[in-house]
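pinning this so it doesn't scroll away 📌
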Amino acid sequence: MPAYSRGHSLLSLFARRGLPLDAAIIIDAPGPEAVAAGAALAEWFEPVFIFDNWPHARGVVPSHLTLAATLYFAPLLVDLKSTRPVPRPPVFILDSNRLAAYIDAQEPSTIATWSNCLTRRRSSGWGFGIFSTSRVERARPSSTI
């Protein structure tokens, strides 16, 4: 299922129960997919991009694809900003490729991890987290939501 559709499916779950103003969503997926899912959720949630990394000299983290996806969805995000209810809860958008593995050119038998951010936690695949001021929930859906 494309990432935009996944985000829209999650949004429909909130639409059935009403928008909780004390909740937030964390999307931790590969950059372009995270941006697409966040764009779908932007109808009701305020997107907060957390791309606190920098490109690896050898392109380990494909940051250019994440930035391209952000530019692709920028017109939609601008249009939705004026139609969202106020106040609106945040959707935090992270790139799970931030700790990508690579083969070191000087040690080809060694697989290393490029850490280009402050965290040491590695995400595998898709990660969603929904939390409120009273509790924290984290869900890691498989390939379907």
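📌 and the second one:
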Amino acid sequence: MARVGAFVSYLVDSDVTIDYLKAQPHTIELFRTLLTDDISISTVVVGEVYQGIYDGDDPVQAAKDFERLLSEFTVVPFDIDTAKTFGRIRGAALKLVPKPGDSDIMVAATAIPHDLILVTRNARHFGRIAGLKLFDWNTVPGNPSGT
């Protein structure tokens, strides 16, 4: 079972989590060196990853792998503070073109009130969200998915 408790420095997005589960070497190295024990995951991301698991070729094994990874993370729930932040961001996003998706807003809303840095390869989805701290995994030298 995943740990629930004190919130830490980094929140991983679903893309980075999926890369780790696919054993992408640079992402594994990122988790080992940069983030060490300071990794958390949103319940929203957990849901996104499970969606992919249930749609995959071997959901039983994929779920076991993900649950093993979850045991190493702090799970950050979508709580009242997160919901308030979601409402603020979504209201402001109504003026944006293109608008961020609700899942992305929910992930950002999880990071902001807990003062977490969101680690993602999809910085363009989050770049215009006020108050969000981003770690753009694409900008890391040597990252094959980077620019």
